[in-house]
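Quick one, tokens below:
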């Protein structure tokens, strides 16, 4: 059973890694449809990794502008949650999940 779960995460990641522009360590885990996915940022050793959203319609310049000085992870990758545990707590408690990355925090 554990191998099946790992394969479920690994298969989309490996497919994206075949693209030259997909960053190493950004692992999709939630498909919103229309090629929009929530991803784990496993580029750090954090045991509670941040979650980023891949927005396929965002250009590099739009991504940089949206980030407003926050770290650039790749074209179309925008912050969704500082920690995976917070992402799941919000999801379980029924908070709105889809629109929130698009609301810029002042």
């Amino acid at each position: 059973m554990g191998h099946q779960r790992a394969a479920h995460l690994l298969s989309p990641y490996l497919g994206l890694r075949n693209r030259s522009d997909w960053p190493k360590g950004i692992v999709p885990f939630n498909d919103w449809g229309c090629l929009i996915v929530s991803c784990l940022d496993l580029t750090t050793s954090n045991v509670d990794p941040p979650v980023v959203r891949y927005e396929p319609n965002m250009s590099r310049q739009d991504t940089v502008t949206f980030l407003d000085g926050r770290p650039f992870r790749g074209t179309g990758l925008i912050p969704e949650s500082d920690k995976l545990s917070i992402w799941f707590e919000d999801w379980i408690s029924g908070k709105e999940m889809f629109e929130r990355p698009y609301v810029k925090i002042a």
